[in-house]
Amino acid sequence: MSLDLRNDEAVAGPPSATDVGCPFHTDRVRIQQGEQKTLVLTGASRGIGHATGKLFSEAGWRIISCARQPFDGGRCPWESGADNHVQVDLSNHRMLPRAIAEVKERLAGAPLHALINNAGISPKTPNGARLTALTTSVETWMRVFHLNLVAPILLAQGLFDELKAASGSIVNVTSIAGSRVHPFAGSAYATSKAALACLTREMAHDYAPHGIRVNAIAPGEIKTDILSPNTEARLVPNIPLRRVGTPEEVAKVIFFLCSDAASYVTGTEVPINGGQHL
């Protein structure tokens, strides 16, 4: 049975025998041979994004970061970080065309091997409680959806040619809150992450004929700044592994999805929650 590709466009085939092995060390060897890969990463300054940037940098990747804050070389010590940083508020969709233009300028026609849509916000009440469907303002709904959903859409569209040139990979960071009511994550956050999971499926279908894989990861309780103070005490007893996860554990799954080891994986959402979804 053959795959009928639209527009007769070729899709990247399986990796060669020389690509088989540890993807981390394979990428480091390629760097030594002058074949550096490039990643666009949003929300790189802390938590999952920070751990992801460090891991990819250690594997020899070039990191182009996007965030509201200026580049912090002390927290994000990857090579040429300041020169490869685009300072932009991704929750303002009107700023996306400028951000995409700046990323393209830094790529200078080079292919883009991965886009990781990690940036996200989960607003709370002043006392740290979840914002419900009854208490979330229209402005908050719009801000959350612009950052958590619209930005990934526009970044993927805007960087399509560069991703296609590399037979690249897109990874969207969703959440366990996208599939169940969460005691701390609010309604706008949860709904935006559910929409992002659906978007991942749609993008995987639409981008596949062009050789671009699209997947998502759905973290559970990960020890980051976004974690509510009572999370561990309240939720860990219900997690089969009896602990929260670390950003480094999430970063390793992201790296796998962007590597040749996952060359036949697309359209999936990988739960990273210690069995919390069971």
TrEMBL record:
It comes from the Bacteria. It holds the Pfam family adh_short_C2. Residues 1-22 are annotated as: Disordered. One of its GO terms (molecular function) is oxidoreductase activity, acting on the CH-OH group of donors, NAD or NADP as acceptor. InterPro entries: NAD(P)-bd_dom_sf, Sc_DH/Rdtase_CS, SDR_fam. PANTHER family: PROTEIN FIXR (PTHR42760:SF106), SHORT-CHAIN DEHYDROGENASES/REDUCTASES FAMILY MEMBER (PTHR42760). Belongs to the short-chain dehydrogenases/reductases (SDR) family. This is Oxidoreductase.
